Amino acid sequence: MKKKQLFILLAVGLALILLYLWQQCSNRENWSGASLNAAGSSTILPESFNSENVSTVVLTKDGQTATLQKGDHNWTMAERYGYPVNFASLKTLFVDLFETKVAQTLTLDQNQTAELQLTPDTGAVSMTMLDKEGKQLIKLLFGKKHERETEMPPSPYGGGGNTPLGRFLQINDRDFILAANTFSRVDDTVVQWLDEEFFKISDLKTASLKENDTVLWETARSDKNADLTLLGDMPPEQELDSTKLASLKNAFSWVRFKDVADPALPPEKVGLDKARTLLVTDFNDFIYTLTIPQPVEGKQYLKIQVAWQGPLERTPAAEEKPEDKEKADAAFAQSVKEKQDQAKELNARLSPWIYEVEARVVENVNKERKYFLKDKPKPAEETKETKETKPAQN
Fold first, then answer.
1. Do 92 and 168 have their domain in common?
2. Of 20-24, 89-93, 211-215, 347-351, which range is least confident?
3. Are 220 and 231 in contact (CB under 8 A)?
4. Are 61 and 146 found together in one domain?
5. What is the pLDDT of residue 224?
6. Helices (H), the chain
7. What is the per-residue DSSP string for 86-143?
8. CA 17/CA 170 separation, integer angstroms
9. How confident is the model at residue 27 (pLDDT cuts 50, 70, 90)?
10. Could you give the CA distance from residue 145 to residue 43 in angstroms, rounded to a whole number?
């Protein structure tokens, strides 16, 4: 390549780079206005702001509202009948608000606020903090996220796409800023704000399903390493379908709920007027009573009660020394108390509520006994050729 051609290419490349930088500056001015000032030393909330004064947090987006209220022992949600809130998520949001720096202060006109999604009809998230008297402490409007463009396309396995750098906010209906945080927690749905802690049965020992006073099926196993056995007589032409029965062992080892229903609803509104009862015990002597209502309008509900009914006295080992007995008795008594307290806490947290769950949560247990059985394989029929060649019996 000749030197003259090389110089021309370099000049064109430089011109393209300058054009790109000019466009970026122009785009920046489109949303920043005439006064875009660095403010990296200040935080979003003033230093005088005290989180202890916050009694209510109201989050609104696209017509959906989550009202988080501070009680004597925890935070709850008004729209979910006082169900506990995921405090870890709320704490993350509070810490972000207190620690995040203001990257830039902005002056915006009406068109620019819409472009940056800082109006309710463009998807902004409104957050209002109130004190115990209902007085507004601060109001924040969370708009568009500020991202750095990358050449890598988004990957279905994660990675790629634009890099989030911050978020545009409006404070108290007047001040516009760019914050150095995306505040992802404010985008959570109403249900995502609920405390997701549920229940878990890892070492199922026995299970039985009843409808009214009729036992539909019972199963048990002798130890954690054994397979479940279906109790009761087996029809002569059928045998156990071990694969289906084995699915019971892990039916509640990883279970989540979708939502909670109004506890004051009439039984027929959530299917409790036509319900079955699943009684499950584990190897730690916890008893789980699961009430499985009939689905209503495509929704499956569930109620849970928890108790502990293990031995209250320890059986001493053979030839146990007095000093060993005292230590063993104390350890046993402590273990009993811990399990009783755990069952009490679980029951107090779960039993007042009617949970909406996925249908698959109960589909492997809410069955008739015949579901766990299969027909025995029929013996192969003798072919005509086999009969003809078979020696005659005397």
1. yes
2. 20-24
3. yes
4. yes
5. 92
6. 3-32, 87-99, 110-115, 242-246, 322-350, 360-363, 384-389
7. -HHHHHHHHHHHHH-BEEEEE---HHHHHHTT-SGGGT-EEEEEE-TT--EEEEEEEE
8. 34
9. very low
10. 18
Residues 270 and 300 in one domain: yes
Q: Which domain holds residue 343?
A: 204-312+330-375
For residues 60 and 196, what is the distance between their CA atoms, to the nearest angstrom? 21
Report whether 317 contacts 354 (CB < 8 A). Answer: no
Amino acid at 234: M
Q: Which of these, 394, 368, 336, lies nearest to 210 by C-alpha position?
A: 368
Within this chain, do residues 140 and 216 fall inside the same structural domain, yes or no?
Answer: no
**Alpha carbon distances (Å) from 258 to 60, 79, 264, 355:** 20, 15, 19, 7
Indicate if 223 and 368 belong to the same structural domain.
Answer: yes
Is the CB of residue 173 less than 8 Å from the CB of residue 233? no
- Please tell me whether the overall predicted TM-score, pTM, comes out greater than 0.70 for this model: yes
Mean pLDDT, rounded, for 344-373: 96
The mean pLDDT value for 249-264 works out to 95
**Together in a domain, 97 and 221:** no
Identify residue 19 by its one-letter amino acid code.
L
Taking 80 as the threshold, does the pLDDT of residue 78 lie above it? yes
One domain, residues 177 and 220: no
Instruction: Please give the share of the chain, as a percent, with pLDDT higher than 90.
Output: 72
Beta carbons within 10 angstroms of residue 346's beta carbon: 21
Q: Are strands 354-357 and 300-308 parallel, antiparallel or unpaired?
A: antiparallel
Instruction: State whether 49 and 172 are in the same domain.
Output: yes
Are 152 and 160 in contact, with CB atoms under 8 Å apart?
yes
Q: What is the enclosing helix (H) or strand (E) of 261? A: strand 259-261
220 forms bridges with which residues in the sheet? 206, 229
